[in-house]
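Sequence in, structure out. Go.
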Amino acid sequence: MMISLNDKQIQHLYWRTGFGISNHELKIVRKLSKDQIIDQIFIESTKASALSMDFGILEKHPKDLSVAERKQARQLRNKKMSELNILWFKQLTTTKEVLREKVTLFFHDHFAVRLRTPRACIHLNNVIRNHALENFGDMLMEVSKSPAMLIFLNNRQNRKNSPNENFAREVMELFTLGRDNQYTETDIKEAARAFTGWNFTQNGSYIFRKNHHDYGVKTVLGKTGNFTGEDIIKILLEQKQTARFICQKLYRYFVNDIINQNHIEILTNAFYDSNYNLKTVFNLMFKSDWFYDSKNIGTKIKSPIELMVGISKPFKVEYENPKVLLYLQRRLNQMLFFPPNVAGWPGGKAWIDNSTLMLRLKLASLTLNSGVIEWQDKIDIPENPMMSQQVYQKIKSKLQKKVKTEADWDIFLSNLESKNKIALTHLIIQPELSKAANRVVSNLDENDTKNFIIELMSLPEYQLC
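Output:
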């Protein structure tokens, strides 16, 4: 029996598997069954388009650099980190491999690394992308051996007779079992011994340094043996709790912040029985009836990246000065490649506070109307009652910059099937409107379609997907 989705359910699917759907795409896919739409989403994400950059002198060994080149390398590192951020943001807004990029964004938070080492960061990002719809166990192994993770969690300093427990702790607490689940402090200490000797070469390739490894017998999670780091990861994957913990995180991210234990057990069993095949668990999730339950639609607060990409993508927005993307990410508290700590971004209601709410509500107007934003990087306006208004305005103007963008309104408007208020509201907004929002919408002029759309995207309800 062919099951069809209504427009609201299709939009829900496309927001959760990506960053929304254009009216043009909606017209095409609404003719398909639910299974056909989902199969198409997977087919479009078959390929993995790696990010690539030229790193110049950063590829040289630090010992081979002159004093002047070392200073240049420090500056280049910061520059390349900014370029990497902008490069990935552009890929998020333009890619056809939307589900793969959305899952990469999820695991970018799960395997949270905060470094100013662009070569290591782009490598880790590409490792995650390659495995995003494949096997979680393979991803975990390769991520664990990546230069970024080895640097960030100090595993290069983990040596026999002087073990460093950082990675062993986080691989259990954050990457597999979850905090305080089935492991003890002794398990962490023993596992740390197994991860000794893990390192990488100058070109970023993993290397096992035998002289640094502890070859003694270890006992981890009730198993005893002369374990290596690879053995520990296999032992962690043998625990069904690992599958459950990952499925809980996937559920919160793709379905609802409120967990349904029955759904979790269904996903956990499928994930574990498939030997951690990510496509299997996503297929089951997106094809289930409960995924489209009204209580799961329009209930999640968009992350800053989801919000920014969701505004930029349908209008094919081009930023004259892409650095504004970094500024907006910083102000909204989600800067790609700079999570707050190893636990990643807290998400959910934590995205909204007094400092972020007003900017979030103004973001559509700033982006689609080239609005003015206060650019307070290094300079503040001094509070001086004697300062002349002229001087004040001169200083203030230096702090304000236009978010200079080009939005393709023509293509967006030409693909609309209807320009009446109800149709546009259903296209732009996922949840039901509040009474206050309904009053605002009823007072808007639907004949000014461009302004009406911006006003819709400035409603609190647009913050939800």
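Check: Residues 304-463 form one domain. The radius of gyration is 24 Å.
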